[in-house]
C-alpha cells in the first residue's frame, strides 16, 4: 500500500492506493496546527488493520510555494563575494544584498583576500536591522569554499543565534546569479519547512505509522524526509509537480494536456506531452529569477479560490493573497469561490453566505449578485488564460518540447485542459473555452495532487567529484574518498563510476533501474592548469534514478 498526502494552503488531500487502485480518499481543511490536518487525513484513509501494510508515504506541499508567492517570509540578508568582473550592481537582485571584498578565481585559488573589518561592519549593520537569516555566496565557491566558511565563522562567533546558509552547499553548480537566488530562498524557507517536517513526524508517530517517508521534489522525483531538511528549496514546486503527476496518472497514456491546478492560494500550470511531463531545462524560476532547483516546466500564479476580493474605485480587484477560507466557508472576505458558489457552479459552503459576499462586493457598483459573480469569474479566467498563453511561449523553447515537435511534425496547440483542485469544476470549463480547448473531467480530480505524490517513483542521487591531479574521487552520499588507480581516467569513466555507484545504492533501497534509464543531472569538467601545462581535471557529476509514476489510475471521462 502507498499513501500520498498533499498539504495545500487551503486543503490537505490524502489517498490510499493498492495495486494502482484508489482504496480511500480524504480532503480536510489545512489548519494552523498542521498536525491536526495530517492526523484527520490519515484517520480517514488508514485503518488500524492496514497500518503495517503501508510501504511508502510521499508528501507534497505548496506551503513553500505559497510563502514565496505571497511574500510571507522574514527578511534575508545575503553577503555576496563576486570579485572582479561584472558591475557589482548586477548582483544586487535581493532586497538586502551586501557586496564584500575578496575573490576566488575559477581555478579555486584565492586572488583577493577577505577584509575582516569590512565583514564585521556589514554584520553590525545587519544586526541593527534585526535580521537573523543570512546567506553567504562566493562566485567560485564550489571550487574553493574557504571564503564562505570564513565569513560564516566570523558571523557565528559574533551572532551564534543566526541562521547562516552557504551558497556552495546549497548549489554546487557554477552559475553564480542562480546560486545567489537559491541561497536566498533557502534562508527564507528553512524555518517554516522545518516546522512542516516536524509536524509530519509527530502526526505519523501519533498514529504509529512507520513506513518509508519521502518528499516530492520540484522535478517529480522524491527525496527521503531527512535529506529534504538539508535542501528545503527543492520542494519549492512540490505541489505543482504533484498535480502534474496526478494528471499524468489519470489521463490516457499518450494524451497531451495543459494542467491547471486551482488551489485556494495559487493556480499551478504545467504541460504533459504524449503522456510525459515537460521538464524545464533552465531550473525553477522564482520571483522572476532563475534558481539552481531542477523542476518540471511549471508555473505558480498567485491567484486561487480564496484570493481576497475588494474594490479599487469602480473595479473589482483580486489580491495576490488569502486571508482564510472563502466567505461561504466561514472566512472573513469575499473570494472567487464565493462567486462560483453564488452561481451554483460548485457545491462548497453555504450558498446564502456566498450571495452575501457578492452583495458586499457589489454594493457600490449598483449591479446585482449574478453580475458581480460573473465579473469576478471572468477576471479570474482571463488572468489564468493569459498566464497559460505566456507559458506556451516559454514551453515552446524547451529542448524536450522541440524534440516532441519534430517527432510529431507540428506545433502543439492546446486541445485539452485538465483541471484539478478545488476550483477546477467551476473555472476549468471556462478556461478551456477561452483557449479553444475541450475541458476534461477526471476521476478523483479533487485529490489528483495526492495521487501524484503516492505514485511518484522513489528517486536516488549520487554526486561524484573526481580530481585526477590529486588522484582521488569522492561519492558524496557514501562519505568516503577512494584512490583513482586508472591513469587513463576520463570523463566517460567518471560517468560510468557515478552510474555504477548509483546502481549499487539503488539496489540497497530495493530499486532496480536500468543503466540506460539513469538521468544525468549535472556534468562539469574543469582543467587544472599549472604554469602552461594541464596537470589534471576535476569532474563533478550528478546522476539520478529515473523519475516518473509507478502506475496509472485511469483515464478521464
Number of helices: 15
Classify the oligomer.
single chain
- Report the radius of gyration as a whole number of Å: 25 Å
The percent of residues in helical segments reads 25-40%
Query: Going across the major beta sheet, what is the strand order?
Result: 3-2-1-4-11-12
Strand content: 25-35%
Low-confidence stretches: none
**Biggest sheet architecture:** 6 strands, mixed
Number of strands: 27
- pLDDT averaged over residues: 88
Termini separation comes to 26 Å
From the spread of the alpha carbons, the general shape counts as globular
Helix/strand-derived category reads alpha/beta
Concise description?
The chain is an alpha/beta fold. It is built from 15 helices and 27 strands.
Question: What do you see in this structure?
Answer:
- The chain is of the alpha/beta class and 557 residues long.
- Among the domains are: 77-189, Rossmann fold (3-Layer(aba) Sandwich); 301-447, no CATH class; 461-544, no CATH class.
- Helix content is 35%, strand content 26%.
- The protein is built from 15 helices and 27 strands.
- The strands form seven sheets. A six-stranded mixed β-sheet has the order 3-2-1-4-11-12, sandwiched between helices. Strands 13, 14, 15, 18, 21 and 22 form a six-stranded mixed β-sheet that branches. Strands 25-24-23-27-26 form a five-stranded antiparallel β-sheet, covered by helices on one side.
- A hairpin with a 5-residue loop joins β7 and β8.
- α2 packs across α6.
- The longest helix is centred in the middle third of the chain and has 31 residues, at 176-206.
- The protein starts with a strand and ends in a 13-residue tail after the last strand.
- The mean pLDDT is 88.
Amino acid at each position: 500500500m502507498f499513501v500520498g498526502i498533499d498539504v495545500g494552503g487551503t486543503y490537505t488531500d490524502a489517498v490510499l492506493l493498492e495495486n494502482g487502485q484508489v482504496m480511500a480518499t480524504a480532503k480536510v481543511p489545512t489548519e494552523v496546527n498542521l498536525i491536526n490536518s495530517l492526523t484527520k487525513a490519515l484517520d480517514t484513509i488508514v485503518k488500524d488493520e492496514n497500518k503495517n501494510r503501508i510501504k511508502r508515504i510521499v508528501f507534497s506541499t505548496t506551503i513553500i510555494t505559497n510563502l514565496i508567492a505571497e511574500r510571507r517570509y522574514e527578511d534575508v540578508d545575503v553577503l555576496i563575494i563576486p570579485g572582479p568582473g561584472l558591475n557589482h550592481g548586477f548582483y544586487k537582485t535581493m532586497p538586502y544584498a551586501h557586496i564584500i571584498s575578496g575573490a576566488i578565481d575559477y581555478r579555486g585559488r584565492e586572488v583577493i583576500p577577505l577584509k575582516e573589518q569590512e565583514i564585521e561592519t556589514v554584520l553590525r549593520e545587519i544586526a541593527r536591522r534585526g535580521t537573523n537569516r543570512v546567506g553567504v555566496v562566493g562566485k567560485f565557491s564550489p571550487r574553493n569554499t574557504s571564503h564562505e566558511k570564513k565569513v560564516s565563522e566570523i558571523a557565528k562567533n559574533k551572532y551564534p543565534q543566526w541562521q547562516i546558509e552557504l551558497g556552495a552547499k546549497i548549489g554546487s553548480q557554477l552559475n553564480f546569479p542562480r546560486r545567489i537566488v537559491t541561497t536566498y530562498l533557502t534562508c527564507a524557507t528553512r524555518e517554516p519547512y522545518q516546522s512542516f517536517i516536524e509536524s509530519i513526524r509527530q502526526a505519523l508517530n501519533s498514529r504509529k505509522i512507520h513506513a518509508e517517508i519521502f518528499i516530492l521534489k520540484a522535478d517529480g522525483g522524491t527525496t527521503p524526509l531527512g535529506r529534504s531538511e538539508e535542501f528545503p528549496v527543492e520542494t519549492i514546486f512540490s505541489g505543482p509537480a504533484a498535480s502534474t503527476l496526478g494528471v499524468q496518472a489519470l489521463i490516457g497514456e499518450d494524451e497531451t494536456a495543459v494542467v491547471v491546478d486551482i488551489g485556494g492560494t495559487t493556480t499551478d500550470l504545467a504541460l504533459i506531452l504524449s503522456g510525459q511531463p515537460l521538464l524545464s531545462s533552465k531550473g525553477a524560476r522564482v520571483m522572476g529569477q532563475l534558481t539552481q532547483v531542477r523542476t518540471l516546466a511549471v508555473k505558480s500564479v498567485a491567484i486561487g479560490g480564496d484570493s481576497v476580493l475588494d474594490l479599487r474605485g469602480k473595479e473589482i480587484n483580486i489580491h495576490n493573497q488569502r486571508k482564510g477560507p472563502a466567505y461561504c466557508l466561514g472566512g472573513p472576505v469575499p473570494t472567487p469561490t464565493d462567486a462560483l458558489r453564488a452561481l451554483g457552479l460548485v457545491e462548497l459552503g453555504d450558498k446564502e453566505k456566498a450571495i452575501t459576499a457578492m452583495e458586499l462586493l457589489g454594493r457600490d457598483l449598483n449591479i446585482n449578485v449574478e453580475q458581480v459573480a460573473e465579473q469576478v469569474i471572468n477576471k479570474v479566467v482571463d488572468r489564468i488564460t493569459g498566464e497559460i498563453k505566456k507559458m506556451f511561449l516559454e514551453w515552446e523553447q524547451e529542448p524536450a518540447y522541440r524534440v516532441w515537435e519534430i517527432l510529431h511534425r507540428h506545433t502543439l496547440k492546446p486541445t485539452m485542459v485538465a483541471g484539478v483542485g478545488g476550483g477546477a469544476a467551476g473555472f476549468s470549463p471556462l478556461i478551456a473555452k477561452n483557449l479553444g480547448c475541450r475541458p476534461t473531467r477526471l476521476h478523483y480530480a479533487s485529490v489528483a495532487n495526492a495521487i501524484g505524490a503516492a505514485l511518484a517513483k522513489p528517486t536516488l542521487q549520487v554526486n561524484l567529484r573526481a580530481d585526477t591531479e590529486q588522484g582521488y574521487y569522492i561519492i558524496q552520499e557514501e562519505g568516503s574518498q577512494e584512490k583513482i588507480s586508472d591513469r587513463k581516467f576520463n570523463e566517460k569513466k567518471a560517468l560510468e563510476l557515478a552510474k555504477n555507484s548509483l546502481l549499487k545504492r539503488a539496489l540497497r533501497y530495493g530499486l532496480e533501474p536500468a543503466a540506460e534509464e539513469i538521468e544525468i543531472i549535472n556534468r562539469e569538467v574543469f582543467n587544472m592548469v599549472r604554469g602552461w601545462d594541464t596537470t589534471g581535471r576535476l569532474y563533478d557529476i550528478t546522476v539520478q534514478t529515473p523519475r516518473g509514476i509507478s502506475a496509472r489510475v485511469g483515464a478521464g471521462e
